[in-house]
Give the backbone structure.
Amino acid sequence: MKPPDDRTELALGAGAEFDAIRTMLARWGPRATGIGDDAAVLDVPRGDALVASVDTALEGRHFQPGWLTAREIGYRAVTAALSDLAAMAARPLGVLVAMNLPSSTTGMLPEIAAGVGDALDAAGTHILGGNVAAADVLCLTTTVLGSAFRPIARGGMRPGDFIYVTGRFGGPASAVAAWSSGREPTPTHRARFAHPVARLREARWLADRGATAAIDISDGLAADLEHVAAASGVGADIDLDSLPLIEGVTDPLRGAASGEEYELLIGSPGELNAAEFERAFQLPLTAIGRATRREAGVTFRRGGERVAKPSGYDHLSR
């Protein structure tokens, strides 16, 4: 849904901050609406709930200098936040972006803004506003607003539910491992890290067909599954041999530990039509296990043999 169309753009004052905003607005064009007031105004469809989330992309924590182009930094930061709306099966209404820019990166601003615009186009949404400030480290904080008639939550899984994932796993972890060892990742693995996709349409398709629990996979499948299990008060039995892996990754433990995937983990009381999903989105939907009773805990196996829980990514671990 678009913001109200009757709002006119306001003239911006003088100064470096507003020069930066004008630079970004020149890149965004009609993708930015109602810019210039102290706050954004938008309508929420009658009967829908407002869904909001915020996400931060910090240089040195979420990516290292030299890993990404400026355009990829802007795209990836906004897409990561939009992925939180996908996890709730929400339709995006708009985005606010706060940029903290070291002096060494001010020349990157037009390309960062172009990347933000790429993410807006992919999601079919708009910029509603934001902030620009000087800083010692490059940091983009994105607030996303969406709506959903019946949002999916993490706490909707019940014993016996089928557990599904979208996509193929292991690309982002493989890219980071390559960069960390001084090598260039394969183009396929690099693309999965630099250009993830927020599964917004896919999530609404799944919700319409009975999905009752969801999370987007940013900390790794194993870690995010435990979040859903804890919120739902269930256990889970996962066969890692069922986990679909990206080309070049053969170890399902690596796939299950890979963070920054931005695929969806879904709980559904009934079986979902994976073939229909793949026809609609050219993306696999794979059943990897079942929810169990809480006292059974979350277990991982390969075939019939139990294995240790794969590691995940903890944003506060260092």
Summary: Confidence is low (pLDDT under 50) at residues 1-8, 314-318.
